[in-house]
Write a structure and sequence with these properties.
This protein is an alpha/beta fold and 447 residues long. The chain has helices spanning 22-35, 55-68, 81-90, 123-134, 156-165, 191-198, 225-234, 261-275, 291-299, 311-321, 344-358, 362-365, 390-403, 429-445, and strands at residues 11-14, 44-49, 72-78, 95-99, 108-114, 150-152, 178-182, 202-206, 238-242, 249-252, 258-259, 282-286, 303-307, 325-327, 333-335, 374-380, 407-413, 419-426. It is 36% helix and 20% strand.
Length: 447
């Protein structure tokens, strides 16, 4: 069955357009409330949000829908997405909703859902909600005597801060570590600096003055250049840049050089393997992770399980294989010993703990492998299916043949825009660029 509302990560779109209207949000509350009312107990949903102005619109709309469906609502205000997933389990709730469009600009927003186990919903459950959205939400309205109630949990921030601190290896302290943290004017603008400071770090905070419109605006993990510059200016030991809902991060070392998710995963995987804490004999990542990461793991008899792009697919593979480290090159890192979804703060804490315990610099700790030259470009197309055009298919075949044995080619269509993303990597950088440019040209000119 085709999906109308849900994409790869919940429901997302332009504020007050199409599926992101207050009316749809209220109906989502009704529909999801009906789907997750299972049993005779008092049902509860946790609602968090980031700092977008539109959150003030979606939060009460969702709450109204859930209350009308007979569910109690616990609102926690601006909190990281992984904090909402954690609170669902901690509060024994039936459902969690995070109002956020992650790294997108303020004019977008979205709804991310978590089941009672803290994991994102299955495709089947999302389709069940979609069916109710278009086929009689009013049928789930409860009698006035069965309405839910809404309240705010003032202790939510403190709960998450203590949870995050507890993930640092026993006795861990960041005394003497100077950290620049860029919170993207987003959901972690309060909790991230608090966690680091309470662990003993000297904290330099950026992106902690949200005004409803500046989330991800030239800051955070999508624009880490400002963080890198500040690390150099402050003489800091490491920089941490989070995205709008803090489920992913990009680091930079003391030299101001960016550290991506592949290097972070390599560090954590090798460290956990050495401590006997790694499960499943390797890690899970996507087709976008660098070939250098795969070669490093192979050299140490560890495996790299690849999935299609999307942290939900990474988590699904981790669960099916019994693995506890996974993530994406973009900085979604999932450490299932602690979290059910990507958590930028907890991932950063693992890296900082290793730096403190080993006594090495961030540049030494985070240079786990030499990346294979990799080029990624996105190109717009005009026809319905550019990848089926003969000239495009030939360019792809030529690239696959040329990279055989020394590289990889990954091509995928965007799920939200008329874009084809072309990624190639290989030992010959010039050859990689040549093949990517050739394929992009054929996609762009296909008619």
């Amino acid at each position: 069955m085709s999906r109308k509302y849900f994409g790869t990560d919940g429901i997302r779109g332009r504020v007050n357009h199409k599926h992101m209207t207050p009316d749809v949000a209220m109906r989502v509350g009704l529909a999801a409330g009906r789907v997750f009312k299972r049993g005779e107990h008092v049902h509860r949903v946790v609602i968090g949000k980031d700092t977008r102005r539109s959150g003030y619109m979606y939060e009460p709309a969702l709450a109204a829908g859930f209350v009308a469906a007979g569910m109690d609502v616990v609102m926690v205000g601006p909190m990281p997405t992984p904090a909402v997933a954690m609170l669902v389990r901690s509060l024994r709730a039936d459902l969690g909703v995070m109002i956020s469009a992650s790294h997108n600009p303020h004019y977008d927003n979205g709804l991310k859902f978590f089941g009672p186990d803290g994991f994102k919903l299955s495709d089947d459950t999302e389709l069940e909600i979609e069916h109710l959205l278009d086929n009689g939400c009013n049928d789930v309205l409860v009698d006035s005597s069965a309405l839910g109630k809404a309240s705010r949990l003032e202790s939510a921030r403190g709960r998450y801060v203590e949870f995050a601190k507890a993930t640092v290896p026993s006795g861990g302290s960041f005394d003497g570590l100077k950290v620049v943290v860029d919170c993207a004017n987003g959901a972690a603008y309060k909790v991230a600096p608090d966690v680091l400071w309470e662990l003993g770090a000297d904290v330099v905070s950026m992106g902690v003055n949200p005004n409803g419109f500046n989330i991800n605006d030239q800051c955070g993990s999508t624009y880490p250049e400002a963080m890198c510059k500040r690390v150099i200016e402050e003489g800091a030991d490491i920089g941490v840049a989070l995205d709008g809902d803090a489920d992913r991060l990009i680091l930079c070392d003391e030299k101001g050089r960016i550290v991506d998710g592949d290097q972070i995963m390599a560090l954590i995987t090798r460290n956990w393997a050495a401590r006997g804490a790694l499960k499943g004999g390797g890690l899970v990542s996507t087709v976008m992770s660098n070939l250098g990461l795969e070669r490093l793991l192979e050299s140490e008899n560890l495996k790299l399980e690849r999935t299609k792009v999307g942290d939900r697919y990474v988590v699904e593979r981790m669960r099916s294989r019994g693995m506890n480290v996974g993530g994406e090159q973009s900085g979604h890192i999932v450490l299932s010993d602690f979290s059910t979804t990507g958590d930028g703060i907890i991932s950063a804490l693992q890296v900082m703990a290793e730096i403190v315990q080993s006594g090495v610099t961030a540049s030494a700790a985070c240079s786990q492998f030499e990346p294979v030259p990799q080029t990624l470009k996105s190109v717009r197309y005009k026809v319905d299916d550019p990848l089926s055009m003969p000239q495009v298919k030939k360019a792809i075949a030529d690239a696959e043949e040329g990279l055989k044995g020394s590289g990889r080619l990954v091509i995928r269509k965007s799920g939200t825009e008329p874009l084809v993303r072309v990624m190639a990597e290989g030992d010959d950088a010039d050859l990689v660029i040549k093949y990517v440019d050739s394929i992009c040209h054929e996609v762009e000119t296909a008619a």
